[in-house]
Amino acid sequence: MDNSELVPVVNIGLNTGRYNFDYAMEELKALSEANNMNVVETTVQNLSQPIAGTYFGTGKVEELRDIVVDTGAEIVVANDELTPSQIRNLEKIVKVPVMDRTGLILAIFANRAQSREAKLQVQLAKLQYQMPRLHTAMNQRLDQQTGTSSGGGFTNRGAGEAQVELNRRTIQRQINHVRHELKDVDKSAAVKRQQRERIQLPNVALIGYTNAGKSTIMNELVKRYGMNEDKQVMVKNMLFATLDTSVRQLQFDDAKKLLLSDTVGFVSQLPTTLIEAFKSTLYEAANADLLVQVVDYSSPNRIDMMSTTKQTLAEIGVPDLPMITVYNKADLTDQDYPSRAGDELVVSAKDPASIDLLVQVIREKVFKNYVTATFLIPFEKGDIVSYLNEHASVKSTDYLANGTKIEAEVTSVDYQRFEKYVLEQ
């Protein structure tokens, strides 16, 4: 899609000195592009705090109005979450719709959602976002109809207040309905999780900033070790290419297996409503045996991205789990790869040697409690022999007069289950 097919927008931001402003504005540009927008101009202002009524100061707002006219921009996108009155007042002056950062992210999520669960979660977040903005939206329509300012129109205001209350009740009913539907989806997801948990496989979750390469890494692992190679996940060079958590089962050459999940990516200043809504989507991360944090090593903002990931994990209640950090996209830097320093790896997802190293480290972490033992299984316990052949790394099998002798590497749980059949060395 070329720029002529994209919606022209002006990005605006307020530098209060409280965070990495340049990084936030770069991210806003990437978010805008992910929403099929072409950023034709960016304008910023340095202020200790936003102006209550208009976000920017008076002179800057007038400058913004001129920029919109000169560039032909159709939307203004703000880097922060704006109050309803700020949006309303800005729109009166610049004469085009104003979208804040939260609205932008919600729009992206609404376009990307594929599964029923993701669609419901986005719908819930949008409804919660709309609720406090009803009063201002209604006042704006009344003012447009009566030609009054925000302080006038008292004759019609009573009708407006009644309509706002009616709309509020409607949205609340919709919120309750969506929450009810999500409970049904959660029940179905819980059944699937219980089925996976019953087979007692280690769970490895890919986490990290959106567009860091999690899905690419997952696809490379699935190609090699997937139980079903056609179960690839979507990969696209944009923020939030996919919102759905994907879970795949991997089996290595020695028969060891694990579950690998690719979770929704993070972004700074993720709206509170979305953090709440996507807690269930990130269940796989919260219950993982190992977190694999994927970081875009080529980005100059990678430290901020890692900080965002850490903060978001804390906000959604993910405990302090074992984690390795994978600095991906090293092929876009001048660093040698693959390399390892403790629990930190420098890799390129498309490089076979990098995937080898990643697999080696994952195996070290999740299979460290495996035990090698020799079992003598009575012939009438053929089901145990079948189980070990399927779920353990069998090194040798001999058939003796009193049973089947198997040397195998098993989980500590399986060792305890079959301990009475262990031959003492």
From TrEMBL:
Q: Does the keyword Cytoplasm apply?
A: yes
- Gene3D superfamilies (UniProt xref): 6.10.250.2860, GTPase HflX, N-terminal domain (3.40.50.11060), P-loop containing nucleotide triphosphate hydrolases (3.40.50.300)
Query: Which SUPFAM superfamilies does the entry link to?
Result: P-loop containing nucleoside triphosphate hydrolases
**Taking every annotated instance into account, which residue ranges of this chain make up the domain Hflx-type G?**
202-370
Which InterPro entries does the protein's record reference?
G_HFLX_dom, GTP-bd, GTP-bd_M, GTPase_HflX, GTPase_HflX_N, GTPase_HflX_N_sf, P-loop_NTPase
Name what cofactor the protein needs.
Mg(2+)
Report a single Gene Ontology molecular function: metal ion binding
- Gene Ontology CC: one annotated term: cytoplasm
Q: Which residues bind Mg(2+)?
A: 215, 242
Chief location of this protein?
cytoplasm
Q: Does the keyword Transcription regulation apply?
A: no
Q: Which UniProt keywords apply?
A: Cytoplasm, GTP-binding, Magnesium, Metal-binding, Nucleotide-binding
Q: Record's PROSITE patterns?
A: G_HFLX
| Binding locations of GTP | 208-215, 240-244, 262-265, 328-331, 348-350
Q: What PANTHER family does this protein's entry cite?
A: GTP-BINDING PROTEIN HFLX (PTHR10229), GTPASE HFLX (PTHR10229:SF4)
HAMAP family in the record: GTPase_HflX
| Subunit record text | Monomer. Associates with the 50S ribosomal subunit.
The protein's job, in short, is: GTPase that associates with the 50S ribosomal subunit and may have a role during protein synthesis or ribosome biogenesis.
Which NCBIfam families does this entry report, sorted A to Z? Answer: GTP_HflX (TIGR03156)
Q: In its UniProt entry, what is this protein called?
A: GTPase HflX
Tell me which species this is from: Secundilactobacillus silagei JCM 19001
Gene name, per UniProt, is hflX
